[in-house]
Amino acid sequence: MTSYIAIDWGSTNLRAWHYQAGVCIDERRSEAGVTRLGDRTPAEVFASVTAGWPVNDVPVVMAGMVGSNAGWRSVPYLSCPVPLGDIASRLTRVEDKAWIVPGLSVEGADNYNVMRGEETQLLGALELQPAPLYVMPGTHAKWVQMEQDRVLDFRTVMTGELHHLLLKQSLVGAGLPEQQENAAAFRAGVQVGSNDASILARLFEVRASHVLGARDRRHISDFLSGLLIGHEVALMTQQADAASQPITIIAGSALAQRYQQALQFIGMDSVTLEGDRAFQNGIRSIANVLAN
């Protein structure tokens, strides 16, 4: 089994794992994402996070925003359609210390999109849970169309960021008390959001409903979450012309459960795959290629 170091280096956080003979023997976390380096260089953060690890003796593979124009080195995107197997042969070496995984891009008349980090999860998911359509929930959710091992197309939906902005920085969330989880409120939001061709006119109603006492002010976050996710899954499954095979959701359990509920509401089957498991499997496959 291959020994290697895997690093998931995003905008706000960094996670690193040291694998020896295929077993993780150490894990480290840092808040020094590429937008939070402070007065340190990426090389200095790298040295700190991997201190004591054999970075000169085993493959070191990094994925995420570390390869962006705000990261350590701006790494070119691989243009879709592209086989995921091409990733391992298109890495970028940085300062003789590590390899950075390229992101993926789409440039079309009706779609301009980029991803960094998710391609590594897709590479892992291809082996663990192959599917014609993946959804990768998060701040910027990705919907990825596959054909066997090829990424044909993908789109990004800013559902997570929109939820945060509306709740924290708009009139929709102004004056609300501390929010509480409420499954019924989430389901009610899903029902409204999945049945509307556009939810723009519904957003102010979120505020009006609690001002008028129609909705519990403590459950507005979950209702808004259901509204946005419900609309997202209805729209994106229609655009992707989702096949009869289940959609694979790549995410942590809590967020995956929300998307699974929303998909179930519109009659779509889905399976879930833990995001960290997919990422680690993807990094392992790249490290195996580098070691050979």
Q: Any key phrases for this structure?
A:
292 residues; six-stranded mixed beta sheet; alpha/beta; globular
Describe it.
There is one protein chain. The protein has helices at residues 42-49, 118-128, 159-169, 183-194, 200-211, 220-239, 253-265, 275-291, and strands at residues 4-9, 14-20, 23-30, 60-63, 78-79, 82-83, 92-94, 98-100, 104-108, 111-115, 133-136, 141-147, 150-157, 247-250, 270-273. It has 292 residues and is α/β, with parallel strands linked by helices. The protein has a six-stranded mixed beta sheet, with helices on one face. A six-stranded mixed beta sheet has the order 6-13-12-11-14-15, with helices on both faces. A three-stranded mixed beta sheet has the order 5-9-10, with no helix packed on it. Strand 14, helix 7 and strand 15 form a beta-alpha-beta unit. Helix 2 packs across helix 8 (275-291). The longest helix has 20 residues, at 220-239.
Rg over CA atoms: 20 Å
Oligomeric state of the chains in view: single chain
Measure the end-to-end span.
11 Å
Output the strand order for the largest sheet: 3-2-1-4-8-7
What class do helices, strands and sheet pairing give?
A: alpha/beta
Number of strands: 15
How many helices?
8
Mean pLDDT: 95
The rough form would be described as: globular
Order of helices and strands: EEEHEEEEEEEHEEEHHHHEHEH
What helical percentage do the residues reach? 25-40%
Largest sheet: 6 strands, mixed
Low-confidence stretches: none
Percent in strands: 15-25%
